[in-house]
């Protein structure tokens, strides 16, 4: 049974590592190289043109016997990150680094990340060279090998790994206890104490190493078949399997030390008589049982959290189906300006592009404030449910009202579709009718303070107001990488309606629309989005264009996978814990069967006979409940987990007591 579990668990570990590495191979490989990030042209220096830049960088690479790779992320329909590279220097590079086409290279910005993919050089030398060419750069943050590896081993994987180790410990303990029964015979026959102790370790060592060696080879084959046979990925796969192998061996060794300690404390005569030193072993099992119960509570909490998120996200699937042609552009490193003046210039260009997109290309703004409250429920004195500009408010463009069939009069809808500069729509749930005047003043003041420049000082913003039906959930279009995808609806928000044109072409307005561009604005159609970016000469600032629905569905599938993993982990934790309960009861009744029967004949009741044993179990359950509550912050889950094990323990004890009653006479006769 132990070998079957060993094969199963090692295979699961190998498959998880392999497919995690395959899924994120581009990012993992990228993070493994030293790099320098070019932010753009240094405003304080004279920069060289592209041809001169590439010529000098090639010469620099050849002189230092290195190869540089400039990362280029081409926009694509799927939104998946696919890196391609412009190569500088001579020499062969890894086939995992896909060369970009000359057309992509010519169209790309010189800003971005430059990897040192071959040879060794201090990154600061490259920074100095780039500075001499008139470009501002900095050494990239180097992620350590261990940090990179820990990103692969997520919380779900750690939980399952912990459950595997507990299960292996329980199974090993059974075999050690069985071995104790034959230890006396082996020692009488002349075997030394060390030989008796180390024999199970040797057996485990052979099984563990042979099984994990086979799974490692299978893992390498999987990497090779999926074009992920890169040295760094091989190292990560090997490290993961080695960590699991070493953990199993350590558990076997620790249990053997316990085994040795038990044999040393027991006389040979007592072993011959069948008196096993089980009190210390039961103490160890109580600790393992405690860990298993806490693990179950934590696993159930994680499962319910992910399941809750999954159910909330599934509710929005129909809405996202209606928005299958919506795309969100994602900024690349080249979008970062090197000076405040350059930043203002870029913001103005992006504002003009968005004005064109909203007026002519059906671009849609759907902004909410929920991200402000991810850590704390109250920020700067404002709760997310407060009816304030930074509270329960969504900011949208007029076409949102059409797409979501917002219930307002046709005249008001038409009025909002033709907002003039300095106007904005303000739609209240009807329950706020009595507060209309007060809230209109608050929102008008807020917008005037944000966006009104000196030339508009005497021309405040004007609200076009209306009312909405109560108890309505409004769809948020949370489909970008920075959005909290769990929340796809908000109930009865105040809806603020505006456009780039209505907020006027001011510095504050430019900053707002630029910040919203890669977070809350959804463009219509992939090809038209790319065309628009190129039309306004901002294409090179973006890494890729993400399909909002596709990103959302990928996120749902990811959560679904995590739910399945957590469910498996929770089930295995429960099985492991029940197994510990069962084993402990079997040992208890086996060792103390005569004492129990004698006490029963003496007239002692059930509670008196089993007081110490029951007290130990109750203390373990109480301690596990407390720890589980602090970990999960959920009293219901902690209580139900404890109740489950109390029920299991009671059923097992009842079964064993009935069994003991049937064999009591046989025990007294010594049969």
TrEMBL record:
UniProtKB keywords: Membrane, Signal, Transmembrane, Transmembrane helix
Superkingdom, natural source: Bacteria
Signal peptide boundaries: 1-24
Membrane-crossing segments per the record: 156-177, 205-225, 231-261, 281-300, 563-589, 610-631, 637-654
InterPro entries given in the database record: Bacteriocin_ass
Keyword Transmembrane helix: yes
Protein name: Bacteriocin-associated integral membrane protein
Organism encoding this protein: Xylocopilactobacillus apis
